[in-house]
Amino acid sequence: MGWLDSILGMFSVDLGIDLGTANTLVAVQGKGVVISEPSVVAVKRGTKIVLMDGNAVGEQAKIMMGKSPSNIEVIRPMKDGVIADLEITEQMLRYFIRKVNGRRGPVRPRVVIAVPSGINEVEKGAVTNSAMNAGAREVFLIPQPMASAIGAGLPVAEAVGSMIVDIGGGTTEVAVISLAGIVASESVRVAGDEIDQAIIKYLKQQYQVVVGENTAEAIKMQIGSAMPLAEVKRMTVRGRDLRTGMPSSLEIGSTEIYEAIKPQVAAVVQSVKMVLERTQPELAADLIDRGICMAGGTSQLTGLVQLLAQETGLPVRLAAEPMTCVARGCAALLENLDALKQILEVGAEG
Q1: DSSP track, 187-231
Q2: Residue 114 shares a structural domain with residue 240
Q3: Cα separation, 334 vs 342, whole angstroms
Q4: What whole-number distance in Å separates Cα of residue 323 and Cα of residue 22?
Q5: Taking the CA of residue 170 as centre, how many other CA atoms within 13 Å lie in the half-sphere pointing to its CB?
Q6: I want to staple 14 with a disulfide (CB 3.0 to 4.6 A). Which of 64, 110, 169, 202 is the partner?
Q7: Span 61-90, pLDDT tens digits
Q8: Residue 9 belongs to a domain with what CATH number?
Q9: 42-48 — which CB contacts under 8 Å span 24+ positions?
Q10: 169 pLDDT band (50/70/90 cuts)?
Q11: Helix H or strand E encompassing 127
């Protein structure tokens, strides 16, 4: 089948996909990330019909969140890193695959998809089936922390310990990797989305003001922090007053948001400590020098790198282009099928 794959590869664009809860990224081997859009789809309420002739996906759908009329429903088909709505996920994947594959012809692409290390066989089957139904000719699933580590440039195939902490929208993936295998890991469903919800809950309880997910995300990015800031940042927030039902605005400070999201940040730090406690002594010794590499969109939360270094006593660094590590790692494996097979074999043995 090798020669046939070679011929088919000439007429298709093979893809690496980070099918995330908050965002979906698609990378093409040799070209890097070509799509980075929200994992959001707008449909006619009560149906699975995607609006705008099937094009109300990603950015086009996110701008409708919280602003759509009653006959339009904006859906996030991924929840906690796994598929919550199978049919909508298929349509979302089909849109992205067609957007990349374009007019290359009828040959379907091979696809490498990163999945949370903690998902079960049923969930893996759902991801594979969705990708096949969306237009892939062959689907490979690899653990998200492995893809992230490869995209971050860590030496995953060598006999040294490398630690990756990937914090996305739905899950935090922590792993120590050596010899192309994950030797200790933790997958917790606390990440960017949970932090956003904590901000929404805080504003509702403290000020009786309701804000949407997009606003909460903006608050997190602008004044959110994992540690108290030396200089307090302030931000004007607009929402709906629960007492009057009228539009309302208020000014909030970074200290408030730090306190509001502290439990979620603590859960992320605890997951890292748990993996370190389960790491073999020889590999743990490697980490004293090599440290921890952080990736994923939420890893960019202000002060998180410093907090993790303080709590673990290890050097911590942010990967270059942390949001794209997983997708780039998936695409890199398409260029090295031997490495992909080795990872899959080691994973199957584990």
Answers
A1: EES-SHHHHHHHHHHHHHHHH-EE--HHHHHHHHHHH-BSS--SS
A2: no
A3: 13
A4: 11
A5: 24
A6: 110
A7: 998 887 888 899 999 999 888 888 989 999
A8: 3.30.420.40
A9: 42/68, 42/72, 42/73, 42/74, 42/75, 43/72, 43/73, 43/75, 43/88, 44/71, 44/72, 44/73, 45/70, 45/71, 45/72, 45/73, 46/73, 48/87, 48/88, 48/91
A10: very high
A11: helix 121-134
* Backbone dihedral angles phi then psi of residue 11, each to the nearest 5 degrees: -115, 10
Strands (E), 211-315: 234-241, 247-253, 292-295
Instruction: Find the helix or strand (DSSP H, E) in which 257 lies.
Output: helix 254-278
Distances in Å between the Cα of 38 and the Cα atoms of 25, 35, 84, 137 are 9, 10, 15, 24
The token pair at 98 is 């067609």
Cα end-to-end span (Å), the chain? 27
Q: Is residue 234 part of a domain?
A: yes
β-partners of residue 317 are: 293
How many domains, in total, are found in the chain? 4
Look at residue 39 and tell me whether its pLDDT is greater than 80: yes
- Residue by residue, DSSP assigns 11-36 as TS--EEEEE-SSEEEEEETTTEEEEE
CA 183 to chain centre: 22
Same domain as 207, residue 221: yes
Residue 68, domain extent: 40-75
CA distances from 204 to 40, 92, 243, 257 (A): 25, 32, 11, 13
Q: Which of 153, 147, 164 is nearest to 295 (CA)?
A: 164
CA angle in degrees (0–180, nearest 5) for 131-133-138: 55
**Structure tokens given for 332:** 């890199």
- Over the range 33-68, which residues count as b (16 or more CB within 10 Å of their CB) and which as e? bbbbbbbbbbbeeeeeebbeeeebbbebbbbbbeeb
Distance CA 111, CA 310 (A): 39
The reply to whether 108 and 19 lie within a common domain is yes
What was the pLDDT predicted at 74?
Answer: 92
